[in-house]
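Troubleshooting: if your tokenizer reports a length mismatch, compare your output against this known-good record of 192 residues.
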Amino acid sequence: MPVTQFSILLASRLRLVAACLLAWLAAALAICAQAQPVTESAVKAAFLYKFTGFVEWPPGTFQRSDDALVIGVLGNDAVATDLEQMVAGRNVDGHAVGVRRLRDGDTLRGLHVLFIGAGREARVRELVLATPGPVLVVTEQDAGLRLGAVLNFVSDGGKVRFAASLTAAEARGLRLSARLLAVAQSVEGRAR
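Known-good structure output:
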């Protein structure tokens, strides 16, 4: 093959590769431009969903093997919205996951997880006492664990973390996985 034909073939292939790379780059930039930054409510929703896989409820918590695992959200509509989108069509240990938006005065029966949003510190202890059975109570209060929550979201350098109370979990008949406790910012009631 003469040098000129080789040069023309090489140039055309380089143009094709460059065009493909530019198209790929344009598509990647378009996707990045559409991508929304991860919100705090989305992170908390993801944690709430993931927590369910690291909690052992006592026998009899689910009446039937196909009963839904219900997460109640009180006082944080953004978390409820993100959680509804996240759990659609998902399950935990064979249980479909449902989200129930709660308002003050709603019944707390039938929940497996109760998330109490910020700004309700004065009512947290009352809500914890009013929540019957083995319910994983999660809060985002400054004193959430002290008020009876099993898990409490905390902010750590701009990141969402959580603290755990083994005492509160035990009082509710729940067992928290060692893997969950290993990533907790702090664990109250841990044997030293």
